[in-house]
Amino acid sequence: MPTIADIAKYAAVSPAVVSRVINRDPTLRVSDETRERVNRAVDALDFTPNAAARALRSSKSGLIAFVVHDVTNPVYGEVLRGAQMTASQSGNALLISEASNSGDRASRLVELVGGRGVDGLILQADGGISDLILARAARERVSTVLLQAELDVPAHLLRLPDKTAAAMATSHLVDLGHREIACVATEAGLSFTERRAAGWRAVLKSAHMNNGDDRIAYCPTSIENGRKTTVSLLSGAPTITAVVCFNFVTALGAVKGIRELGWRVPEDISVVTIHDLAVAEFLETPLTAVRMPLFAMGTRAVELILRRSFATGAESVIDDPKPQLIVRRSSAPPRC
Amino acid sequence: MPTIADIAKYAAVSPAVVSRVINRDPTLRVSDETRERVNRAVDALDFTPNAAARALRSSKSGLIAFVVHDVTNPVYGEVLRGAQMTASQSGNALLISEASNSGDRASRLVELVGGRGVDGLILQADGGISDLILARAARERVSTVLLQAELDVPAHLLRLPDKTAAAMATSHLVDLGHREIACVATEAGLSFTERRAAGWRAVLKSAHMNNGDDRIAYCPTSIENGRKTTVSLLSGAPTITAVVCFNFVTALGAVKGIRELGWRVPEDISVVTIHDLAVAEFLETPLTAVRMPLFAMGTRAVELILRRSFATGAESVIDDPKPQLIVRRSSAPPRC
DNA sequence: TTCTATTGGTAAAACAATTTACCAAAGGTT
DNA sequence: AACCTTTGGTAAATTGTTTTACCAATAGAA
Question: From the CA of A74, how many Å to the C1' of D12?
């Protein structure tokens, strides 16, 4: 555990010079010969600067917290990977926190943010965004990025082209000839749910189709919720021939429910979902899905934080790459 | 950004007392009345101790690094969740690092470990365990847990009941009447691969069956590798009627490959895999799988680190809950 | 009354870096 | 020769907490 002072002694310079060399400060001058000596000392003693001391003095921890609802949800995987790559390329690290429940964790998060334990904060819309944390982050000037949320807070808002994606999914079904298209939405009240619902409604309206409230049902993301919701939706309106799901996981449940009711996919009911995952093509009925730029959302979120900008309420949409419809076997023309 | 000094002033005590109160040090004495005053001050000023200063003085960062090969691999999800829960329950946080490639990242990890940026290190066997990092961790007394590895290093070795699991999968096929059982293994050279292979071989041997090298093939985990490997395995030995896969992801590829060859699962070829994921039952052919105690491995890893123990080479097996065979539709008696 | 323990608290020294302010020497200008 | 500027470096302050060593006051015992 050599310190900067040991290096300084070994290289016969002062600690300040060592600091300049290892931080490659371009404005401050060190002769080539001295720099060389210091570098040799660093190698010889196998020196790594102490993270805590550095963070204390410079008030930069090099850490970014990523808060999700459920780490096992594969949809976050891609976002996480994008964030992770961008972060580590710039010498930062990513801290994962599951905010799903208990107050314990929320308070641990407050400590991290309040104590300047992290430089940035990335919050997923369904990760239980707490006002406490947002307020704290703003006060401490911890730059914050909200994913898929729509709040009036001093943070960057980053979102996906949800309306477009839902419209693409719905249009695909309309093009196939469906006239009764139901919708298994994500949790009500979340802004991305509303945007996707708007996309679904817009397409149905322009095709002069029934888009009443008896055609859409909202539920939190889980296989079981998807199943239950689909069953009650289809039981209530037997003329429905297609379903748009707002999440891959609920789509799995939807297919399960349709089969329980004695129908087949896609012969009796077509299913199209938002979010395309690798397993989609290995399912009993490979799912037609709209691929979203999740990876790009992850990279963009970290970029914003590294830029240390604090745009208040500036909302931007990730649309590169654009959402893309992947047609597989779960969608077909309606029967008869 | 109030400091401990501000609290001290507000509560009319010295900083040392504030420190004792917020750290709830039971051995050191503070009168109830003073404690109350300090707590009021903390609330009034909305104080959170500075993480960096605390880490610097106490040389504990409250951070544990979890290094995996690929964050999108769903098999890690469960391990991660177990680790995450245990960590946050004790006021620690988890840092995710993808060690898959580039030297950049490896060096960032060295900085974290070398600079005492983390208290503990959890390394997945296929996460590219670098000697550099292990040496550094040992020198800095960062307690380290190796998952599914078998190295002679000063770290805890935690592993799954791999031999048992592979034997369970293979026995299931033998019980169904299969006499020619191939094996799509994970990467050669990894210790868990060897253990699983041993389980497969043991069952075949006790059933007096062919367990030669032309029945087993090794490949890194990916859908495509699973597909290719299975195709070449089956093409070379047409009498094979069943396949044991060592990973869920390669199993997806295996099923794909079997279909490409014009065969059906399970009518022509049965497939059993190690690792059970939620999607298993939604696949075209729901996969028979051995469920492993992944969550428990995650919790155990963090517990070991929090205990700050440095057992050298002590290997322990996670066997609670025990591995469990989940029979689905991908396994059936052989044809004729 | 005097002598010890105990209680409740304080002052100041770490911890290991970054950064500001300053300084000596060398080189260039008039 | 006197003066200014640049170069390359140093000493010391700063960051916010924990912890050690110490001290005053009170209580209890002899």
Answer: 53
